[in-house]
Amino acid sequence: MDSVNSSSSTMFGETFIKLSGNNVQGCIGCGGCFKSKDKKCVFKNDIVNECIKKMIETDGIILGSPVYFADISANMKALLERIGMVSKANDNLFKYKAGSAVITVRRGGAIHAFDTLNYFLHSTQMYSVGGTYWNMVYGNWVFNIHQSKVKVSSSLFAL
What's the CA gap between 34 and 42, in Å, rounded? Predict the structure, then answer.
């Protein structure tokens, strides 16, 4: 699958899952995951179940999202809704895992988006890993973010 790119470093194995370019639908509250209890969402037409599988297998999870309009992206919101429900339906799948949030933003909405990701970490009973500074990067364009003097990676490798 093109959206999953696995690589490894000397200390950590890592998997990067890119949601952009994928159509992720939000949770409809059907309760199918509470009936099946198979650690999957009943909707199988997108990458959500693959994300759940990868998240179950790992010790630490970094959630990242751009801020397009005052909050996390629609795909990230849809993913969090569905994996959150599947987690609750299966005795809190991500309980005691380490998690961290990072966002990129052009203007406003940084704190709100950061809070949204952190609320997910807390509601799924994950340990929130902090950094030495806010886990957000500002820039008008992608190249501005790459030139940023704030090194996002300092908080990402804390896991």
Answer: 10
pLDDT digits (tens, 9 = 90+) for 119-142: 999 999 999 998 777 777 777 665
Q: Strand locations in 1-144, DSSP E?
A: 4-8, 13-17, 60-67, 98-105, 127-128, 136-138
Q: What is the mean pLDDT of the chain?
A: 82
pTM value?
0.80
Backbone φ/ψ region at 70: left (φ over 0), alpha (ψ -120 to 50), beta: left
Provide φ and ψ at 17, rounded to 5°.
Answer: -115, 120
Domains, the chain, with CATH or none: 22-156 (3.40.50.360)
For tokens 């950094």, name the residue: 131
